[in-house]
């Protein structure tokens, strides 16, 4: 009785879309309330909301995408919840479109379409879904492409709506071809689908019919191919010299190229699922409780998929030609997916943002895996292994979500601590930093986010910009570390105009607090790398202004979340700012608050502004006691403390208490 109810439900035409959405939400939606925006999303929001023209972001890099983003940004704005719903909906819709496409091609088999769409949904090689704005739109475009293929085949099958179906297919194809190069060469699949169908219906005249039926799509594809190649530099930043590549062909280059192709194909197919068995970098520092929750969710998804597959209608009488057709289609889809990225020599299948180039491989890999399980004679074993792989893929995506959540916590700490320490920066100031240690951001994206805390933009200029010094030093941007070098943001940041004579240098080693480096003190800091120390002579902390600009509170909270409750880092940043502007009464108030709350730092370096504040307020005993404690706990800071006390000696009035304190510290230094 129960089996019959399950069978009846799973075979209902509405059941699979509902189940597919449930799996989508369990996989991608559970941790989303604890995240916000990532990667280019900050910059896109900045250009839309602060510069009132998101198309500036896309200049020279997929400019037609702006026409997709503009209406969605107008509707969703910076509301993360809307973008999250949009992201998981388009991911679900993309898998559902593949389901409908496969049903249209091989209509007598439900099992193949169900299995392929499930594999497509949890595809473990792709590890960046949680940048919902970016990839929600990308999966929407991919859905348009899949629908275009479906409508082409529907038009070929005839009916009164043939012209309308062809028109819709052409419109969707045009959107795909003109907005992005991701799915450009997957257009090959359209002609396979048309050719397979016509060859099966009319073996004698299929070539003539194929040419006639495919002509509208071929003309569109040819026209846009010519346009894309002629406008390559304006359409994407992934430039390549076709003539140079052809002229430098050699046996070793061809061998290495083919080897790279096969390596990439392995990594996005079998290698991706093998890695999902034990994603080591995602399991590090994972608590037993969190692991158990993820395990339960993954097992639940596996059980749902097993029941779904078990009761899906399956054609056990596929002919040899049908098997060859499915295999040929999937292999063609796999290799055509990689053409744009292999030509541009992009690293397919590597972690995070590089994994976005695995998206076009999803249909081919998914159909290949579905066909392999369909071909297995032992149905129960095939269903079990298939459900197990889907559960592993879902678990892998849950772990990736957890990794994004941790990275967001780190980002949120950085942004708010930056704001507390630096209320405003003088316009055109450049920020140099270490690599910061974010897993999912680079300095361009961080720069986009930081500008939301600055005053309103004027004349479409960007006030501040951050560069990771280790990746920029010695490049065309900063060929050497000296003053007077113009510093220009790349691509869509060409409206920033900085100079190496106008910089501050910061350090952030989470979970320790954000720090603006002090050239006088931090030159002896053993916790920062040599390159930052070499650049310290350029730093001018007077560029930091203690002026609170007017900010759109709702907008800030949508993007960065609510301001965290005051903790140690909050009071440290405020004390550092008060020290810089020599507001010693404020430092004293903060010191008393910290003492009352019993707060302590992770990094003993963070006591320095309090030591300086104690001396400026005449509390020499407290300053000496705190210094002795730091010497005992962190002797590596001895030279920094010595320099700090030298500055204190120069900047405070003489007194008997000061003399005793200086003598005590001198004795402590001599003993160490």
Distance between the termini: 82 Å
Beta percentage is under 5%
Helix content: 55-70%
Low-confidence segments, given as residue ranges, are none
Briefly note the structural class of the backbone.
mainly alpha
Q: Could you list some keywords that capture this structure?
A:
672 residues; mainly alpha; Serine Threonine Protein Phosphatase 5, Tetratricopeptide repeat; two-stranded antiparallel sheet; 4% strand; elongated
Description:
With 672 residues, the protein is mainly α. The chain has three domains: 2-400, no CATH class; 424-547, no CATH class; 566-672, Alpha Horseshoe (Serine Threonine Protein Phosphatase 5, Tetratricopeptide repeat). Helices cover 61% and strands 4% of the residues. It is built from 30 helices and eight strands. It has helices at residues 2-10, 15-28, 41-50, 66-76, 80-105, 110-121, 132-156, 162-179, 188-201, 206-230, 232-235, 242-247, 251-268, 270-277, 280-283, 288-310, 320-337, 339-343, 362-375, 379-421, 443-450, 469-472, 530-535, 553-560, 568-580, 584-597, 608-616, 620-633, 638-651, 656-671; strands spanning 424-425, 429-433, 464-468, 486-488, 497-499, 503-507, 515-516, 544-545. The strands form three sheets. The chain has a four-stranded mixed β-sheet with strand order 3-2-6-7. A two-stranded antiparallel ribbon has the order 1-8. A two-stranded antiparallel ribbon has the order 4-5. Strand 2, helix 21 and strand 3 form a beta-alpha-beta unit. The chain is elongated. The chain starts with a helix and ends with a helix.
